[in-house]
Each structure stands twice: as C-alpha cells, then as structure tokens.
Design brief:
This is Cyclase family protein. The chain is of the alpha/beta class and about 325 residues long. The protein has two domains: about 5-75 and about 110-330, Glucose Oxidase, domain 1; about 80-110, no CATH class. About 25% of the residues lie in helices and about 15% in strands.
Length: about 325
C-alpha cells in the first residue's frame, strides 16, 4: 500500500481492505496463540547467537519510576514504589529478626504498560474479535486474557534484533518531527543508508528509533516536563506500512514512542488504526516506550545494526501487555 492510497475520510473501509490483504488468521492453525512469534524459531535464535562479538550489553528500557511520562490517560499512571521494610526499621530494632539481621523489602503498583513494554495479542480488538478470529468477550474477561496472555511468549522472545535508526537516517539532528509518518520507502532508505547488517527478514525483532524520546528528554532537562510524549503527536509508522509488516515476516517491532504509529493518525477521525490490523490480524507483537538512544550511538560508531536481543516480558498470567527490560548484546 502506498501512502497516497490512504483515504483519510474512510478509515473503516481502508482498515477492512488492509485486513483482507494481510490477515494471518489460520496461518498457524485455529488454536495458535503465538502469532508472529511463530517466525522466531529455535534455529533463528541459534543463528542470532553469532552476532555477539564484543559482549557489550545495552538496556533498551526506560526507567520504571514516579518521574515517568504517564499523565493519567486511560488511567495509566507512573509506577508508585513503596518501601515495606527499610534500614531505618532495622536500626530501630523493630523488624524482629535475631542476631542483628536486618533487611529491606518493597512493593510497586503500576499499570503494566506504563513504561517499556510489549503489547500482547489480547490488547487490541477489531469489531469484537481478537487474534485468530476469537470473540473478544470469550478471550479477555475480568480475569484477564485466558488464551493469549503475555505468559504464552515468556520463553521465546530472544533472537536477532535489528535497529532501524530512521531518526538518524532521515531526520534533522537525529530526530523526526512529531507527525512524521514513516513509510515503507523511509524504512528501505534507512536500511540502504545503514548497510547490509540492517537488512530485515523472517523472525527478526525490529527496533525503530524516531528520536522523539531524545527530544522529550531535553524537555525534562530544561524543566518543561514530558510534554505530550505520552499520547500526543509523535513520529511513527504510517498505516501504509501494514503490507511491509506482513511481507517481511518479522516476529515483533518496537519504537521509542508511546504509540508505535504516527500521531495524529492519518485519517480525519480514527484512533490507532495500524494497531487494529497489526495486533488482532497480523498477530504482531508491538513494543512501545523503548529507549534506543545508547544502542543507536553504538551502532553508528561501528556500523553494525544487528545484535542478539533478549526481550521477554514479565510473566504476568493473563496480562494483555507487560513490562520488559530488553537487552541488546553486541
């Protein structure tokens, strides 16, 4: 699909047409719960191991703390970290342990998608259907996702990661402006500019850096806060990339933005239309709020843009998304 083929006035029809072209329903059988993670095979993981050359490891996670970007939209808040036992309690002698032993314990309360995270297959529905055509009301209930909960992929999300630093390849000072729609042409131009180590293929986990997080951090340093980073305008993937996402057979994709796709969306009245196809129809796992800045600097320095990536979600039973601390090992 080309960007000019997007009918801004008809999101419903454009989404339906895309679904007809790219749906993976039934591709791995009626009972499948892994979606595009089926592309990430044991052989793919073995092949990815040879990408570890120096042993340098880089976290792609943002912090999980009360200073995060969430602003309360959809009741998403920043983590609240509370101590249950402290050094103060130990010194005061109120912990009740023998022979001078003391300790600390803590608890955290947070939405599972408040910082670096994966969207699971139960996160988004299309006309009441979840991944593989299942009725949403039978899959996700008040008890959680009973079929495609995030725990189904807890063992398997590691393999070849590929950074597409679109911000550095196409942007100004390494950043794309808010509202910049990344098309298939932009992705291919980035791959060409970066060289053969950024070629994307079956089973890869793609990390797209737009540079928006870098811009948001400057605002924090200047005392302006996060601004509209969580939920506002942002660079991101164009709806027109839906055919590319299907064709290249990646296992997952993640960005340094709050919502993965370009915002405002490319229709006169719509909300996250690419999600509506990618998750319930492609079965694609989407990562958001990833921090690719340190990795991008390392890749630019030595010209290598692929790496071994381990990015398994926290095994929260029945969750439709979960925190992750992705580690790129180069």
């Amino acid at each position: 699909m080309k960007p000019e083929e997007i009918d801004r006035t008809d999101p419903e029809g454009t989404i339906a047409a895309a679904v007809a072209r790219v749906s993976n329903w039934g591709r791995w059988g009626a009972d499948d719960v892994l979606g595009t993670m089926n592309f990430l095979t044991d052989q793919k993981r073995r092949d990815a191991a040879v990408l570890i050359r120096t042993g340098q490891s880089i976290s792609l996670s943002q912090p999980f703390d009360m200073d995060g970007p969430q602003n309360g939209w959809r009741r998403r808040t920043n983590p609240v970290h509370t101590m249950l036992d402290t050094g103060t309690d130990a010194v005061a002698g109120v912990q009740g342990f023998p022979h001078g032993l003391g300790g600390a314990d803590d608890v955290i309360a947070m939405p599972l998608q408040c910082s670096t995270q994966w969207d699971g297959l139960g996160h988004i529905f299309d006309h009441g259907k979840t991944w593989n055509g299942r009725p949403a009301d039978q899959v996700v209930t008040c008890l959680g996702d009973n079929t495609t909960g995030i725990e189904t992929v807890a063992d398997i999300v590691c393999g070849r990661g590929v950074l597409l630093d679109v911000g550095r390849a196409l942007g100004t000072d390494g950043e794309l402006p808010d509202g910049f729609a990344i098309t298939e042409e932009h992705l291919e131009r980035t791959i060409e500019a970066q060289g053969p180590t950024s070629t994307v293929g079956t089973g890869d986990i793609v990390v797209v850096r737009t540079g928006q997080l870098s811009r948001a951090r400057r605002g924090l340093t200047a005392g302006d806060g996060w601004g509209a980073y969580a939920g506002g305008s942002a660079p991101g993937l164009s709806f027109s990339t839906v055919d590319w996402l299907h064709r290249v057979e990646i296992a997952a994709i993640a960005t340094d933005t709050w919502g993965f796709e370009v915002r405002p969306n490319e229709f006169d009245h719509a909300f996250q239309p690419l999600h509506q196809v990618a998750i319930p129809h492609l079965g694609l796992f989407i990562g958001e709020l990833w921090d690719a800045d340190t990795l991008a600097a390392a890749c630019a320095e030595d010209g290598r843009y692929d790496f071994f990536l381990t990015a398994s979600p926290i095994r929260v039973t029945g969750a439709v998304g979960a925190p992750v601390n992705p580690i790129a090992v180069r």
